[in-house]
Each structure stands twice: as structure tokens, then as C-alpha cells.
Design a protein that fits this description.
Layout (H helix, E strand, L loop, with lengths): L1 E5 L2 E7 L5 H12 L8 E5 L3 E4 L2 E2 L3 E2 L22 E4 L12 E4 L20 E7 L1 H7 L4 E4 L2 E5 L5 E6 L3
């Protein structure tokens, strides 16, 4: 489990090492490295998801020079349901690195459909097991556009630290 300490509260994620071994190991390594500390929840869309793990205050991209992208494991049977945690990526299905999102609602359209560029989906690798109220509170903040990014919180929501629990 990983306990995220943020500027708006704490939440815990349980990783699914069985169904998403590559993704869970990748995410855990970022956490152990202290990578997430000082990054933002930089994209918040009420009724959809909250996203973080790749940008620092000022919308500075932190990902350059870190771990290589990983294989998309969206075909693992896990679904993008409320409280699930999935990897963000570009249009390339196998481009996920550190950015992740928490689903605020069931988002079945993000699930794996086929091994095609359009059908890969977004790999779920964990579940918020405590603190979903903190995630819901994030979804209520005012957002704006900043440095080419939309849906950015007006006031920074910072990941202060991530604690690895029970390893």
C-alpha cells in the first residue's frame, strides 16, 4: 500500500501486483525513489477523474530523464471504476511513465477493448482503499487553464510525500 500525503489530505492506494505486475512495480519504484514528492494533481475534471504524478508547480514537466515507458497492462481484467487508479498515457498505448489518475466515477469507456491503438485502454493497477473523500474534495476545487494545460486547479494541490506501508 501507498499512503499519499497531499496538501488537501491523505489517501491510501492498494496496488494490484498480481493482475498488473509491471505497472504496480513501476509505480512502487517511483514512490520509493521519492519521485512523486513535490508533484501536483494538475488535471481535475469533476465527474471523471483527478490526475497527477508528472508535473511540478508552474506546470514544469518532471518526467524527462526518468524511467522508460512501460508496457500497457490494460488487458488485465481490472476496470476503470470509481476509486480505481490507472496510468495516464499519450495516444501511444505503451507510453505510461509516472502520471496516474483516480477515477471519480465508473469510466468503462477507458477499459481495454482490443490490442489496437484505439482499443488498448488505460491500465488499472490499484484502488483507493482509504481517503476517497480527499479525492472527492479535489474534484470540487476551481480549475483554470495554465501553460497550455486545461482543468488545472487554481490553487496547487501538492503531493508532499508518499509512504510505503506494509512492504
Amino acid at each position: 500500500m501507498l499512503k499519499f500525503h497531499t496538501s488537501v489530505g491523505e489517501f491510501t492506494i492498494t496496488l494490484d501486483h498480481e493482475k498488473a505486475p509491471i505497472t504496480a512495480a513501476n509505480f512502487l519504484q517511483y514512490a520509493k525513489d521519492g519521485y512523486f514528492e513535490g508533484t501536483l494533481f494538475h488535471r481535475i475534471i469533476p465527474g471523471f477523474m483527478v490526475q497527477g504524478g508528472g508535473l511540478e508547480p508552474g506546470m514544469v514537466d518532471k518526467r524527462e530523464g526518468h524511467h522508460a515507458p512501460i508496457q500497457n497492462e490494460a488487458d488485465n481484467g481490472l476496470k476503470n471504476v470509481r476509486g480505481s487508479v490507472a496510468m495516464a498515457r499519450t495516444m501511444d498505448p505503451h507510453s505510461a511513465t509516472s502520471q496516474f489518475f483516480v477515477n471519480l466515477v465508473d469510466n468503462g469507456f477507458l477499459d481495454h477493448k482490443s490490442q489496437t491503438p484505439q482499443g488498448w485502454g488505460y491500465a488499472v493497477f490499484g484502488q483507493v482503499t482509504e481517503g476517497m473523500d480527499v479525492i472527492d474534495a479535489m474534484a470540487k476545487v476551481e480549475t483554470t487553464s495554465r501553460r497550455g494545460h486545461g482543468d488545472v486547479p487554481v490553487e496547487d494541490i501538492l503531493i508532499e510525500r508518499v509512504e510505503v506501508i506494509g512492504e
